[in-house]
Write a structure and sequence with these properties.
Layout: H1 6-11, E1 19-22, E2 26-30, E3 38-44, H2 61-77, E4 84-87, E5 103-107
Length: 116
């Protein structure tokens, strides 16, 4: 169960990460098991019950929009703004393993469809 709070420890800088982007609401860092040449994870700094997208409530609307805008900023910073994918796994059947909502920004290679 230690991994459930891993992202909280990354936000608090207790666990080191390779930070790509940070502002007052989100933190973006390189995935430790990249699935593409560019693979960055974007998380809200405050979980506020937002463990997965399937549990989002109206009060989360602003942070959800901010996360997507931050994904675009990450893609620009990483040089893949001309083509990138944003993935959100929601729930165990979608292979979500860390219950702190997070986006995966993937790019730097041709993505395939369907994705899995």
């Amino acid at each position: 169960m230690w991994y459930l709070f891993r992202f909280d420890k990354i936000v608090s800088k207790e666990i080191p990460s390779s930070i790509v982007y940070e502002d007052d609401k989100v933190l973006a860092f390189r995935d430790i098991n990249p699935q593409a040449p560019v693979h960055v994870v974007v998380i809200p700094k405050i979980r506020d019950g937002l463990t997965e997208l399937g549990k989002a409530q109206t009060r989360h609307t602003q942070i959800l929009g901010h996360l997507l805008h931050s994904a675009k900023i990450v893609a620009e910073k990483e040089g893949v703004a001309d083509g990138f994918r944003v993935v959100i796994n929601s729930g165990s059947s979608a292979c979500q393993s860390v219950y702190h909502l997070h986006l995966h920004v993937l790019g730097g290679r041709q993505m395939k469809w369907p994705p899995g």
